[in-house]
Design brief:
alpha/beta, 11 strands, three-stranded parallel sheet, eight-stranded mixed sheet, 13 helices
């Protein structure tokens, strides 16, 4: 059975109005084509981002690119914005050579510490590059960054991204004018490389798929409360399920690396009344739906906070490829030289998803 995307779009909006997500998901079983992401009048001027690992690097990139609408970020296990951009790679005319330079820096300087003795990452240089990009208009002016609320997390048992790199991310925010009182660093848990939960997932100190670590700590709640301030208690059980949507309409002709399907959680209250804020969650490497199904989407804990606090949670998805076998977000340039700017294919696609939600 095949279905017209436009018909399915109308069906999704109809189902959203009634809150019958189960009916919608039942329809998806019988249909080959996913529905369109609906327009629900979201207030995207109050958008925030979270990510784990490569997703945290992307959360930072999206925040810097669109700081005029981003009010906060949850950075879990990653280093500073622009870390993987190599000086030599930037000067090399052939992007294939630049990409090799960037990848070397990403592995040895921005996840590992082999290049620490060479001064990588250099916060002064990274801050200067951010100012240059803002000055040329390829990212928003940095004025929009300075009032942001930033949550940083590093686990004591994380052997993938060491604590020193996460602290460097905090140093960059401070260097660019973010108030120190707006930055929260959580480093007290003996957690492995993963997103931390109050309940559910693997053992706290392990680093294995689906990269959810049960450390008796509600990280999702800690992030959204740090960004948005006092919130209503989360829902203990959800009536509705996250909904899949077609990501392909947001990719255009660009090679973005995005999967066919994305996922969004829209509380019924956000359908009934406009003005809900949006929290974008970028999965880590090996944590997409393609790799772990819906484990991260349903197990991270964001949806239960969204349900009672008029938050829409957007879960864009990356797919694996020969150039990107772990399904990571592009934080070293595999989609092209504009990967740190508004014109980065992945950033453009997710920004278009926000525009659709705004309606």
């Amino acid at each position: 059975m095949s279905c017209s995307p436009c018909i399915f779009s109308r069906t999704l909006n109809s189902v959203l109005r009634t809150g019958l997500f189960g009916l919608m998901l039942g329809g998806l079983v019988a249909c080959e084509e996913p529905p369109a992401l609906p327009a629900v009048g979201a207030n995207i001027s109050q958008t925030s981002v979270t990510g784990l690992s490569s997703g945290a690097y992307m959360a930072g990139q999206f925040q810097f690119a669109h700081s005029s609408i981003i009010i906060g970020a949850g950075i879990v296990a990653s280093g500073p914005y622009g870390c993987a951009e190599s000086v030599f790679g930037r000067m090399t005319p052939l992007w294939s050579m630049a990409l090799a330079q960037n990848l070397n820096r990403a592995v040895n300087g921005c996840t590992g510490t082999a290049m620490a003795s060479l001064g990588v990452p250099n916060i002064k240089r990274l801050a200067g590059r951010a100012r240059d990009r803002a000055g040329s208009g390829v990212i928003d002016k940095l004025d929009g960054l300075r009032d942001d609320r930033v949550y940083l997390f590093t686990g004591k048992a994380d052997r993938t991204v060491p604590p020193s790199l996460v602290r460097k991310a905090g140093e960059l925010y401070e260097a660019l004018g973010v108030k120190k009182s707006n930055i929260q660093l959580v480093d007290r848990f003996n957690s492995g490389h993963g997103f931390v939960t109050e309940e559910g997932g693997g053992t706290c100190d392990k680093s294995r798929a689906p990269f959810l670590n049960d450390c008796d700590y509600d990280q999702a709640g800690a992030i959204v409360k740090h960004i948005y301030g006092p919130l209503k208690p989360p829902r203990t059980s959800l009536k509705d399920a996250p909904a899949k949507f077609n990501q392909e309409e947001f990719t255009g002709s660009s090679s973005t690396g995005l999967d066919t399907l994305g996922v969004v959680y829209i509380p019924v209250s956000c359908v009934e009344r406009k003005g809900c804020r949006v929290h974008i969650v970028f999965h880590g490497c090996g944590q997409s739906r393609e790799a772990v199904d819906d484990a991260f989407i349903t197990g991270s804990g964001f949806n239960k906070w969204a349900d009672t606090n008029r938050l829409i949670v957007l879960y864009p998805q990356i797919s694996k490829s020969a150039a990107n076998p772990q399904g990571c977000w592009d934080w070293w340039g595999y989609t092209g030289k504009k990967f740190l700017t508004k014109d980065a294919p992945q950033i453009k696609a997710v920004r278009a998803m926000l525009a659709r939600l705004a309606g």
